[in-house]
Write the structure tokens for this entry.
Amino acid sequence: MNETYNSLIAAELSVQKSQIESTVELLDGGATVPFISRYRKEATNGLDEVQIAAIRDRIEQLRDLDKRRDAILKSIEEQGKLTDELKNKILAVKLMSELEDIYLPYKPKRKTRATIARAKGLEPLALKIVDQNLGDVEDWALTYINHDIGVASIEEALQGARDIIAEIINEDADVRKRLRDLFLKKGTVVSKVFSGKEEAAAKYRDYFEWTESLAKVPSHRLLAMRRGEAEGFLRLDIKPDEEDALEIINQLHLKGNTQSSLQVAIAIKDAYKRLLKPSMETEARVNSKLSADEKAIQVFAENLHQLLLSAPLGQKPVLAIDPGFRSGCKVVCLDAQGQLVDNDTIYPNAPQMQTRGAGEIIRTYCQKHSIEAIAIGNGTASRETETFVNNIGLPSSILVVMVSESGASIYSASEVARKEFPDKDVTVRGSVSIGRRLMDPLAELVKLDPKSIGVGQYQHDVDQILLKKGLDDVVMSCVNSVGVELNTASSELLSFVSGVGPQLATNIVNYRNEHGAFTSRGTLKKVDRFGGKAYEQAAGFLRVRESNNPLDRSAVHPEVYPIVKKMASDSGCTVEELMEDKRKLQAIKLESYKTKTIGLPTLRDIISELSKPGLDPREKFETFSFAEGVESMSDLKLGMTLPGIVTNITNFGAFVDIGVHQDGLVHVSHLSDKFVSNPAEEVSVQQKVQVTVVEVDIDRKRIALSMKADPFKKRDNPPKKKIQAKQVIEIEGNMQQKLAMLKGKFGK
């Protein structure tokens, strides 16, 4: 690793250089982010998962930069043009864009106007004009007229020279750096609808005539405009003020007021319009898209994290129903371990309305399998099915819970579902998924591609590689923070355990099927290809509830078992007795157990875990019910206050399920009585909330909701803010821009 990168990353993340060195060493040694965060606190001085992941990602970027740097140095050296000054300049660069700018003049070129002019021998003329000394440029050009090589006139000679000058300007790294900054900081996004496509592009009507600062445009708005462009409805342009751009180039390349200066000025305009503007716009598009992607992925990741850590019902027998009308409701019964024990189809809804027979089937199943909860998918006919179930005389002890079925159909047709239930159709598999989501959302949702869960924002428009990486990090973090029971976990769940992966997960399940349940963590070492490194990374996150060693049921890592045993011995008891006696735990003097590698952070974690071994960090399950009698959009009335569940969070607000088959939107301006800029700070996915209906548009299937105490209250005298001089200039600039637009539309 380039040693200077330690200092660079440390400065960027505001941590110590030694923390970077230790973290990178662990990552290079094959350690995962959850393992480093949980079990190597002494080495990193307490860095959390977010910081460790940031170090991992940044070092990958810098190493990619090094690979590209080496390739560029080799290319220029092979051309015989690598000087010590140029080499040092290349070695000092820290950004890929600047590295490519330096390489541009040496990059093998396709045929261009400048290469054609050089082939005609016009480069000396171009370089003479670039000096901008006194003299008659036409006299200079006259000597280059040569009909045999295609230079028939003075103007053709000058044009060729200007083409070469334009390319020189285009390849000037300083020009490109300054223009890049101009585009990103002062560029505007201009969106217009293609003429004649207004009706087809109705969903993008907000962007038919839209202008906004590139630096300030929210990620969701930029992604929406880009989607409209990709679908052929909108035309996007990203540009700064042209005069500002030309002024930057003039300052660097225009030296005086000679005849040759005039030729350079012409070449500058050509270089900007023909070469630099398209190139800089492309870069601005890429950079702004990357920024928008990162923000959208961050929103998606936060939503997914909250959803995966939703409160589980736990290991209880569950009856699950995938509701429907004409095709009926698919019913499955699952035992406490989530295994399918019965299934059937009932028809309690229209058009059949076989409520009596359907009720008898449900009551029989509940008694036969000691059902403790009923999970009902929240799709078509969900509220009708919920009403039916609540009216068939079930014991009050049986919970009736509405469960999100987003992505259940994708699971039911997946290879995972086919392998688990080869003799069942997709409807039965979907119902099983709904029931298991109630029992343990994390264990079931890891079987799905996160994009199909329905908690993202423009997830199909963002960089799919970055999205997968970000979401995989979230899933791994959640799985390892909860811990996994080794003897019941699916191979999909096991694959996200630190150090395991898909192949070892399959090997674990195969071993379990062949040899029976694992009796201890140590038995893992008998699994095919489960070596010492994998054991080190995974063991602390795996639980064996039936183990004779009580520590195997906890998050205490096997590498510190000897320390715990010594603590118990010094306390005059067994490990199990120590775990059950909080007074003895509190009396332990941690300083006595420090070693060269084990410090107070790990020792504190050990005591915390011993006091609550294997504690699930997720909240306890709470029941929830939608408002009775409100089952469709037509039942909604303005001002109605309803219970709801947050299903998705975006930069512009939160979507809430209120039980009418169409989520409502709580705009950021209605999330709180105070203005909120980040919705994730106010609500979380699966949070139970109270909302007020403020608008219903049945034709467009849109519901506007509010979480304000009085959403219809208007402020009579809003406080006036003192306008600063800088704001006056901005306001005047905006007025001028609007006037210019009006003139363009309607004339003077």
About this structure: Residues 715-748 have pLDDT under 50 and may be disordered.
